[in-house]
Write a structure and sequence with these properties.
It is flat and about 45 Å long. It is built from no helices and seven strands. With 100 residues, it is mainly β. Strands 1, 2, 3, 4, 5, 6 and 7 form a seven-stranded antiparallel sheet that branches. It starts with a strand and ends with a strand. The model has no long low-confidence stretch (mean pLDDT 93). It has one domain. It is 0% helix and 64% strand.
């Protein structure tokens, strides 16, 4: 949930979700899927045909001891579940993690 603050802020609270599941193979690369979406403001959801809902297969990877940190990545295709959004969206995320 997200809500704006400040003098020009909306008084509505927006609801959105993200879900990630992966199969723990113990290998560097693991398969899984992700889902993202949001029906809109709580109490004022938009019609289902106008909402943003996406789901699709993803590949996840983690390389430990990559220099002083850990390199993580994931990517794949998300498929639109409603007419309001594109049929397919390519998604990629790269991350380099350092521990202090």
């Amino acid at each position: 949930m997200a809500r704006e603050v400040g003098s020009n802020a909306s008084n509505r609270t927006n609801f959105s979700y993200a879900w990630e599941t992966r199969i723990a193979t113990g290998w560097v690369i693991e398969p899984g899927f992700q889902a993202y979406g949001g029906p809109g403001d709580i109490g004022h959801f938009t019609s289902v045909s106008e909402q943003d809902h996406r789901i699709g297969p993803q590949i996840f990877g983690t390389v430990y001891a990559f220099g002083p940190g850990t390199f993580k990545f994931n990517g794949g295709v998300l498929f639109g579940l409603t007419p309001a959004i594109p049929r397919q969206t390519l998604r990629c995320q790269l991350e380099y993690e350092l521990r202090f």
